[in-house]
Design brief:
The structure is a homodimer of 304-residue chains. By secondary structure, chain A is of the alpha+beta class. Chain A has 9 helices and 13 strands. The radius of gyration of chain A is 18 Å and the shape is globular.
C-alpha cells in the first residue's frame, strides 16, 4: 500500500501508433514533447488547478504538437481531409462532452468541454458540431492548418497498400490525459485524428464515453488508445471503472485485466488514475508514448 | 427460480415519450403496434431464427410505424429535418454496429447491421454514413419520407416553448428490442429520431455502444430509452452487463439497480434479456411502451 497522493497525472500519446521509420532517431524529440506536456500538467496540479482544467491543457498541448495524431498532426482521411474526435469527463457529477468528425476546430478537446459546460447535451457530431463551435466562440482554423507533409506521405503509403490489397497499418494514434487534483476530483480527456485512410465518417472509441474516456470520483479516470472498435465493443474505459466499483479490484488490477485479459495483444493501451492518486499505465502493443507524475515526486516519460 | 427459456424477446417503443394529448384515446392503437412487432419477433424465434435477425426485424417494424420516434415518425430537428441514430450488437463475439445523424436511410438499424457485418468499423456518422449506405445498397429514401404532420406540430410547439423561454419537453422516444434465440445467442438493437428541436448534430445514447445498447452472451442483451445524456454518462447498458459479470447480480437486480438507483426518476427505462431467458423491464417514467414474450407462453404488451 502506498499513501494517498495529493495530486497525480498520467498522459499518453498513443499506443503502437508510430511506424518504425517515423520513430527512428526521433525518440528524444517525442520524449521531450511528452515531458513538456507532463510538466505543464504537474505544475498546474501542484498549484491547485482542477483536474478538469489540467487534462484540457495537457491534451491541447498534445493536439498542438504535430508529432501526435490529434489536432495539428492528425492523420488524413481517405479523401485527404482531417476529421477529429475528442471527449472529456469529470468524475464529481459525471458531466461529459464529446465531439466527432469535426474539420475546422483547432482544439477538439476544448470544443468537447464547451459541449459539456455550455449545452444540455453530451455528444455533437459533424457539421452540427462545427456550427456549435462557431456559435460558442471556440477557435476554428482553415482546414489547411491540419496539413502536414509526414501524414500526407502516410496516407499515400496506405492508399498504395490498399490498392495492392494489403492490410491497413493499424493506426492507433491518440492523445489523452487523466488527473487527480488536490480537491479530490478526477478528470479524463482524449483526442484523436482517427485512422489514416478512414472512410465513411468512421468514428472510433475516442468520442464514445465509456469506451475511450471515463471518469468517476468513486473509482478512477481513464483514457484509452488503440484499435477503437475493440475499445468500443468491450466498453473498455467504463469496464475499468466497473471492475473497481463492482468487483473491488484495485486500479492496477482493473487496468491490467482490461488490457491483458479483455483486450487482445496488439489492441492498445489504457492510462488511469484512481481516487487515491495511484496510477496505472498498461499496453499490449510494442510501444505506448506515456508519462506519469504525482505529488510524491514521481516524474517519468517513456515510449517502450 | 424459473427454468431456462428456449427463447425470449422484449421490445420497447420509448419511455415517457408520448405527450398526454398524443396518447389520449389511442392506447389501443399503440398496443396493437407493439403486439404486432412482438408477435413477429416471437414467431421468428420460435421458428429458430437468430436473435440478431429477430431484433433487426422487430426494430424495422417499429421504425416503419409512424407512431414511434424512429425511422418514419421520427421527430424533427430544430431546422426542420430528421437525423436518425441506431445501433445493433450481438453477444457471441461482441460484434456491433452504429450510425448517427443519418438523413435518408429508411431503416437505420439495417445500416447499423451493415456497418457491423460489412466493414471493419463499428461507428459511422453523418454524410460518411450516408455515402456508405449508398455504396452498400442499403435502402435510401427522399428526406420527405420522414415527414409527418404530427411530429411537425410537435416541433412548432417546442419552438414556441423555446421562444417563450420554457423548458423543452423531454423527448424520449426510442424503439428497441432484445432477444435470446434457441442457439443461446443474445442480441440487442435500438433506433431513434432523437429529441424534437435538437440542434448542432446532437446525438444521444442510441448509437453509443455501452450506453443505449449492449449484448454479451455471458451476461445479457440490453436496450435503453430515455434522456440519452443520462444513459451515456452512466454507461447504462454496459453497467447492467457489468453488474451481472462483476457483482453476480441477477438480470432483474442489475436492471433495477441501474434504472432506480443509478438513474434518476424521469430519466427513462431499460429492457433486457439474460442468457437464461429471463426478462427485465424497468422504467422510472410514467410510461414505457413495452412488450415481452418467451417460450413458456408469456406474451404481453403494456404502456403504463
Amino acid at each position: 500500500m502506498t499513501e494517498r497522493r495529493e495530486w497525480a497525472i498520467a498522459l499518453h500519446g498513443g499506443a503502437g501508433s508510430v511506424p518504425p521509420e517515423r520513430l527512428a532517431g526521433r525518440e528524444q524529440e517525442f520524449l521531450a514533447s511528452l515531458e513538456a506536456a507532463l510538466r505543464a500538467g504537474a505544475d498546474l496540479l501542484r498549484g491547485g488547478a482542477s483536474s478538469l482544467d489540467t487534462v484540457e491543457v495537457v491534451v491541447r498541448l498534445l493536439e498542438d504538437d504535430p508529432k501526435f495524431n490529434a489536432g495539428k498532426g492528425a492523420v488524413y482521411t481517405h479523401d485527404g481531409r482531417h476529421e477529429l474526435d475528442a471527449s472529456i469527463m469529470e468524475g464529481r457529477a459525471l458531466r461529459c462532452g464529446a465531439v466527432a468528425a469535426v474539420r475546422t476546430v483547432k482544439n477538439p478537446v476544448t470544443l468537447a468541454r464547451r459541449v459539456m459546460e455550455g449545452t444540455p447535451h453530451v455528444f455533437l457530431v459533424g457539421d452540427g458540431a462545427e456550427t456549435f463551435a462557431r456559435s460558442a466562440g471556440v477557435e476554428v482554423v482553415d482546414p489547411s492548418y491540419f496539413a502536414t507533409e509526414e501524414r500526407w506521405e502516410e496516407l499515400q503509403r496506405e492508399l498504395e497498400k490498399a490498392a495492392a490489397g494489403a492490410s491497413p497499418t493499424p493506426g492507433m494514434g491518440t492523445v489523452g490525459a487523466v488527473a487527480l487534483d488536490r480537491a479530490g476530483d478526477l478528470a479524463a480527456a482524449t483526442s484523436t485524428g482517427g485512422r489514416t485512410n478512414k472512410r465513411f465518417g468512421r468514428v472510433g472509441d475516442v468520442p464514445v464515453i465509456g469506451a475511450g474516456t471515463y471518469a468517476d470520483n468513486r473509482t478512477c479516470a481513464v483514457s484509452g488508445t488503440g484499435k477503437g472498435e475493440e475499445l468500443i465493443r468491450h466498453a473498455a474505459a467504463a469496464n475499468v471503472s466497473a471492475r473497481i466499483e463492482h468487483r473491488g479490484e484495485t486500479l492496477v488490477e482493473a487496468v491490467r485485466a482490461v488490457v491483458h485479459d479483455v483486450l487482445r495483444a496488439g489492441d492498445g493501451g489504457i492510462i488511469a488514475v484512481a481516487a487515491d492518486g495511484s496510477i496505472a499505465l498498461e499496453w499490449n502493443t510494442e510501444t505506448m508514448f506515456r508519462g506519469a507524475a504525482d505529488s510524491s515526486g514521481r516524474f517519468e516519460v517513456a515510449i517502450r
